[in-house]
Amino acid sequence: MTKILIIEDEPLVVRMYEKSLRFEKFDVITALNGVEGLEKIKTEKPDLVLLDIMMPQMNGMQVLEEMEKDPELKNIPVIMLTNLSGEHDAELALSKGAVQYWIKKDAKPQELGTRIMEVLSPKSE
Amino acid sequence: MKIKINLFLWFVFIGAFTVAIVNLVPAVIHITDVYITLAVKLVLTMIIITFFYNLLFKIPIEKILTRIKGISNGDFDKKIEVKTSSEMNEIANGINALSQEMKNYNSSLEAKVNARTRELMQTREELENQHNALLNLLEDVNEEKEYKESQSKSLLENMGEGIVITEENGKINYVNPAFEKMFGFLRQDLIGKALSDSIKAFDLNGKELSPAQVSDAGVLTAKDQEIKLDMFTKDGSRKVSVVINAAPIKVRDQFKGVIRVVHDISDDISLQRQKDDFFSIASHELRTPLTVISGNLDIVLQGYGKSQLTKDDTELLKDTIEASDRLIHMVNDFLNVSRLDQGRLKYELEPVDATSIVVSAVEQVKPIADNKNIALKVDKPISGVIVDADPGLLREIIINLVGNAMKFTHKGGITVTEKVNNGILEVRVVDTGAGIRKDMQGLLFQRFQQVSERTLAREAGGTGLGLYISREFAKVMNGDLKLELSDLGKGSTFLLTLPIKKDKLKQ
């Protein structure tokens, strides 16, 4: 099973995506802040990380930067979760190595599964 | 009584009388001596002549002379009588008449003089009155002037806004207490110096103003200038955000200096910031639970919770999801409108491929269209069209237009077309829906529609703000949005125009 790590500080949102992804047969682990998230990336080695941008203490951008620094982690695909109406932070995240961004307020949770599969399935060059 | 005896007659009588007496008396007295007779005759003659001389000449003449003297002394009243001879009588009468004339003349002259004097007195009185009236008026005017001056002074001294008056050479001539307080200055430290000696100013972009700009430049020609600045005391200890209204002081068309009204808006700005923070925090906080509501309901609806849903359950869930989606939509709309109002819409224009955004926006709403069995497609998208736009705003516009079309279209389809025309990208959203009544079309893009007119919005289940917001977004990107055509039962076409980036115009 594909292992997905959700790093998001809002428990309601975490549980929502968790349920949705579990039904779609993903293995889901969660972390409620950036520090815990980084740890779990290292220990659990997920196939993909769903990363919230706005988090206290360590925000998504900082987590991303840390991931890029670590050769083991930089290859793990990251989808940024954001509610910001400006696309700039998300664009910024893309430039820092995130693969995609996902605007939470705009789309239904079950589409997330589809998007994850798109990211993970090898694309023809 | 006319005196008939004139002097000639008297002379004749006197002659005869003298001759008679002179001859008679010696004869009667029997004087024999010749020489004594002669002497007696002489004496008698002398006596007679003297007597009649006095009677006819001396006395009347004296009377007359006395009267004349009296007349010349101003005594016009006495009258004289001389009855001894007609000549003298006439002279006396003439003198009397003359005297009377003079009296009359004098009286009339006096009367005239009196009348004139009275007139003059009246005139003088009038003049005096006018003089007094003028004096009073002057006093009133002075009082008024003093009052106004003290009012002005009082106004300047007590008003809440700061006032700085500089002379032609740029040196400060006057500051009021409000200005002193704003910066913690003392009047005496500022007078005679240039404003830039004590103040540093930065515009809203953080750029510092040169001393010339702080002092006077630019005000000479400007009629009215209002500038927003951050002003700092020279030592940087105090910062005040201000709006300055500067106006030149002109005396008879000559430039004499500048008066500046300095309005402290630090409070307003901090209030604004608080309002913005509130809005942004509130909307952020609102969104998360709204997203979860909608998301979880959807999950249950999809059967992820593993329960068997009845038809009723399904419908209930669908309606609840729709309601919650509307809430999300409303929060976004309110947030956008408030941002637009405050001019605080966050956006960044950059060169983007318009079609890719249009296509991705359409794809985002396609699932909903599929659900409603409405055909939705982008017809012949043109690739390589670069516009200066904010991708988020552009996406919102397309989603709004397509979303609206879906609300009004129950059968048929929605087509999004593109066309390049004279350097402008035209994006059309064409639907085969209910169309919009001609008399409602003017209201489409307005914010505050009356309740009765809101049926349009209510049918669509929205706030009615979407088109207003979308048009504002289009304008921000130097484009426009309008209803190209629509009629009842015939569907609608909305047209979005955006200028194509000039150096990327493709043939």
Task: Write a concise synopsis of the structure shown.
The complex is a heterodimer of chains A (125) and B (507). By secondary structure, chain A is α/β, with parallel strands linked by helices.
Note the total helix count of chain B. Answer: 12
Q: How does the major sheet of chain A shape up?
A: 5 strands, parallel
Please mark out the parts of chain B with pLDDT under 50 across 5 or more consecutive residues, or reply none. Answer: none
- Number of contiguous helices of chain A: 5
How much is the radius of gyration of chain A in Å? 13 Å
Q: Which value, in Å, is the CA radius of gyration of chain B?
A: 61 Å
User: What sort of overall outline of chain B do the alpha carbons produce when their principal axes are compared?
Assistant: rod-shaped
Q: How are strands sequenced across the largest beta sheet of chain A?
A: 2-1-3-4-5
> Roughly what fraction of the amino acids of chain B lie in strands?
15-25%
Distance between the termini of chain A: 25 Å
| Class computed from helices, strands and strand pairing of chain B | alpha+beta
What does this 3D model show about the protein?
The complex is a heterodimer of chains A (125) and B (507). The mean pLDDT of chain A is 82. The two termini of chain A are 25 Å apart. In chain A, 43% of the residues lie in helices and 19% in strands. A five-stranded parallel beta sheet of chain A has the order 2-1-3-4-5, with helices on both faces. Chain A has helices at 11-23, 34-44, 60-69, 88-95, 109-120; strands spanning 3-7, 27-31, 48-52, 78-82, 100-103. The longest helix of chain A has 13 residues, at 11-23. Chain A has 125 residues and is α/β, with parallel strands linked by helices. Chain B is an alpha+beta fold. Helix content of chain B is 53%, strand content 19%. Chain B has twelve helices and 13 strands. In chain B, α2 (34-72) runs parallel beside α3 and α9 runs parallel beside α10. The longest helix of chain B has 73 residues, at 86-158.
